[in-house]
Specification:
The protein is an all-alpha fold. It is built from 25 helices and two strands.
């Protein structure tokens, strides 16, 4: 019984077919191990000391005994070992002289090239770890989807989708005008501004201007993207050509006007602005260009005169408050503040006079009062501030009037550290009672608070406010005098 079982085991082990096992995936590893054992066994067969000067060549033309030859022969023997295992077991032969001569279709010799002849036989692990042997391992095949990126065989719709996902796609395959327009339409349909801009850059580079402008004229979304892109990148010449093609004369004029920002020399900028006055602007824009030119011309005159006064030391205000910056190329409001600060008392006939600037450029009263108040309060010229709000009627009576509201006047004066006496004068002029009380309490204008509660005939609030003033102060005496006045009819 045991003999029959042994014969059965021998039959299954000597068969040319093998049953399925879970170790099949390790066949490659097992072949490498067999190759290593075959190479190590060659040391006993070949004598290196006697054959140093001789080179044995196999039928394939490779040196016998080299690593490539041993691996190749061992790999080829592994493919035919299944067929000859039965006969080899019966003969009991262990000689390596009977290796088959056929060349295997699977060879590892192509993987290890760099040295055809070694001074001595090495094991496979030693050969692989030898730094003198170059290892040329083939690169793994890329997925087919990645090759399509390089082959550029995506449709316009697929190309746009991949660009939306951040993939790198080559647009060079779209050579015909029709393909390029389809690509642009797909990008517009995708509603992705980055993709639309990328496609427009490609079209700008590969199409003539006339063709590009003609096709964009009927594609307004793409046209707006290109105009915005040209403005951002500063491609002024191409932008002007596009706007002229579209017959947008006002936009052409505005684009040319923007070029003055790149001119640093003041005289050249003035001449450039003078030339822009004749461009086809709208009536409103033409007046703005004219004002800009006039303002720069005034600034040049004021700057030259003030620089001379400051250098010569002939003006007290320039000695006390030296200029921190030049007035050139400053906005109109800044120029007005400068004139109110340094030239407030000058006659209207001079170019640097604030009233001359107000009249020439038609500055509104609110803007003029705000600017002049800030400038004179900074200099602590309280008389000028008072005169700024004092008006006379036709009968000669004076009255204080503020086009910006006295509550804003109080805030500006407080920011410039105006004394309490000056603040109280303008807090009293605030018409709204609640606003007046809040400002008077906030800035500690005690007289205004006391007088307001007296006018309101609010005995309780006046008594409560008495606790907020200092003991024995004039404010406390004033409150006591009002509370003891029997002629006042209190509401509570």
């Amino acid at each position: 019984m045991s003999r029959a079982r042994a014969d059965e085991e021998e039959y299954w082990h000597s068969s040319k077919f093998r049953a399925f096992t879970f170790d099949d995936e390790d066949d490659e590893l097992s072949q490498l191990k067999e190759s290593k054992r075959a190479v190590n066994s060659l040391r006993d067969i070949v004598d290196d000391d006697d054959d140093d000067d001789l080179e044995r060549v196999s039928w394939s033309g490779e040196p016998v005994g080299s690593i490539s030859w041993s691996i190749k022969e061992t790999a080829s023997s592994s493919t035919s070992s299944l067929e000859g295992r039965d006969s080899s077991l019966q003969k009991g032969s262990s000689s390596y002289a009977a290796f088959p001569k056929q060349v295997s279709s699977y060879s590892l010799s192509s993987l290890f090239k760099g040295r055809n002849k070694l001074p001595s036989f090495q094991s496979l692990s030693d050969a692989l770890s030898d730094t003198g042997v170059k290892n040329y391992t083939p690169e793994l095949r890329r997925p087919k989807a990645e090759y399509k990126d390089y082959n550029s065989d995506w449709s316009p719709k697929d190309t746009v989708r991949r660009m939306q996902r951040g993939k790198v796609c080559s647009l060079e395959r779209f050579r015909s005008l029709q393909d390029k327009l389809v690509l642009l339409d797909e990008a517009v349909a995708g509603h992705d501004g980055n993709v639309i801009t990328a496609v427009l850059i490609f079209l700008k580079r590969t199409l003539r201007r006339e063709i590009l402008f003609r096709e964009l004229e009927v594609r307004q979304v793409a046209l707006c993207h290109l105009i915005h892109f040209l403005k951002e990148t500063g491609e002024q010449k191409l932008l002007l050509d596009l706007l002229r093609f579209l017959d947008r004369t006002e936009e052409v004029a505005l684009s040319q006007y923007r070029e003055h920002l790149n001119i640093q020399d003041v005289e050249k900028r003035r001449e450039f602005l003078k030339g822009c006055i004749g461009l086809p602007f709208s009536a409103e824009d033409t007046s703005h260009i004219q004002d800009h030119y006039t303002l720069l011309e005034r600034q040049i005159i004021i700057e030259a005169n003030d620089r001379h006064l400051e250098t010569a030391g002939q003006s007290e205000i320039f000695r006390k408050y030296p200029r921190k910056a030049s007035i050139l190329n400053m906005p109109l409001v800044t120029t007005l503040f400068y004139s109110c600060f340094y030239h407030y008392t000058e006659a209207e006939g001079t170019f640097s006079s604030p009233t001359n600037l107000k009249k020439t450029f038609k500055i509104p009263d609110k803007q003029y009062v705000l600017t002049a108040l800030a400038a004179r309060a900074k200099l602590r010229a309280w008389d000028d501030v008072d005169a700024l709000f004092t008006t006379k009627n036709w009968l000669g009576y004076t009255k204080k009037k503020a086009p910006i509201g006295f509550h804003r006047v109080v805030e500006i004066l407080q920011r410039n550290n105006a004394p309490v006496q000056v603040l109280q004068e303008y807090v009293r002029l605030v018409e709204d009672v609640e606003t007046r009380l809040n400002l008077a309490t906030k800035y500690k204008c005690h007289d205004v608070v006391i007088e307001t509660y007296r006018d309101l005939k609010d005995r309780i609030q006046l008594t409560a406010y008495k606790c907020k003033v200092e003991r024995g102060s004039a404010e406390e005496d004033k409150i006591n005098s009002i509370l003891n006045n029997m002629q006042i009819r209190w509401k509570n």
